[in-house]
Amino acid sequence: MFQAPSVFQRAPLPPATRESEPRHAQTLTATAPPPALGTSAPGAAAPAPAAAKKRDPYFDNVKYLAIVLVAVAHAWEPVMDGSRATRALYMIVYMFHMPAFILISGYFSRSFDMTAPKVKRLITSVAVPYLVFETAYSLFKRYADDSPDMAISLVDPFFLTWFLIALFIWRVTTPIWQAIRHPLPVALAIAMLASVSPDIGDDLDLQRVLQFLPFFVLGLLVKPEHFQLVRRREVRLLSLPLFAGALLFAYWAAPRMQLGWFYRANSAQEMGAPWWSGAVMTLAMFGCALVLTVGFLAWVPGRERWFTVLGAGTICGYLLHGFLIKGAEYAGLFDHYTWLSDPLGLVVVSLVAAVAVTLMCAPLVGRALKWATEPDMNWAFRKVSARR
């Protein structure tokens, strides 16, 4: 396992305060940011050549490594039954991989407002991909899984498309979080109330939207210097015993704990737990996820690596890998080849998922899918004045 701006796009230098841009207009010069998409300063000089532009590759590395974890964890789901160790690893990965994505997404939404250029980017790079891939996944299940009754419902996200509609909602509410005095406590209170409210229903996956909300709001509050603190050597060293302890606890909890707590898609009552446990688990899961996210971010390399360029294509990796996982399920692959649940099979499944999502993040794939992930829809929008 996942824009205008979005966690999937290439990241600007940490000191920048504007949101990330689509790949074709996203790099920043070392001296000043470019004008907003769709605007140009009167009399401005021509933009500097691409070779003169530079970005901190850290966030591209974060996004690529996180999307690999998303894909691998999804691949484990059909084969981890019977393996306590795999279930424990799955629990750890699920504890922080989406919180990390959401926090980074919030970080690059700090400058979002409801101006026309940014609303345009939000629609073309979040809302449109949601509509396209929600429809595509529904049709894929209808025909590949022989489910003729599978409806195309734009208000009931299927599988992984929930993140796009959640991102849309979170970003639209960004001005609210930036206006109130104590945004994080308010977001946590909302998440706690959602976890004890079974009547919210499934529309737009609002349970997930509300229960994951604190991570997005935290991202809005994070500053570049916080990432510098996270990447200190002391934090990396402390994260080693942290992950070791988390693995031991997860191994103990694997047969005892419902996975629904990690998905955040249901209230406590819907999982058969006392209502008050929803509020308690919301706070506990937030704290655990935050600590593990910090440990993950501490070990992400800050320099360019062979996979840095793939960080720009995580939107494709996120949206495409689900077809691979679901296609294998619909074809009965995991039921037919039972050895995939063995230790060697789990390694094979993990490697195949990691390699596949890596290929899906390649620039060539991004260019081929640009019509769906970053469509040019100037025809649908009014021309915006440069002053706006």
Automatic annotation (TrEMBL):
Q: Where are the transmembrane segments?
A: 58-76, 88-109, 121-140, 152-170, 235-254, 274-299, 306-324, 344-365
Cite the residue spans of the region called Disordered: 12-44
Alphabetically sorted, this entry's keywords are: Acyltransferase, Membrane, Transferase, Transmembrane, Transmembrane helix
Work out whether the entry's keyword set contains Metal-binding.
Answer: no
- Coiled-coil residues are none
| Database matches in Pfam families | Acyl_transf_3 (PF01757)
Q: Which GO terms describe its molecular function?
A: acyltransferase activity
List the protein's name.
Answer: Acyltransferase family protein
Q: What organism does this protein naturally occur in?
A: Streptomyces pakalii
Organism phylogeny: Bacteria, Bacillati, Actinomycetota, Actinomycetes, Kitasatosporales
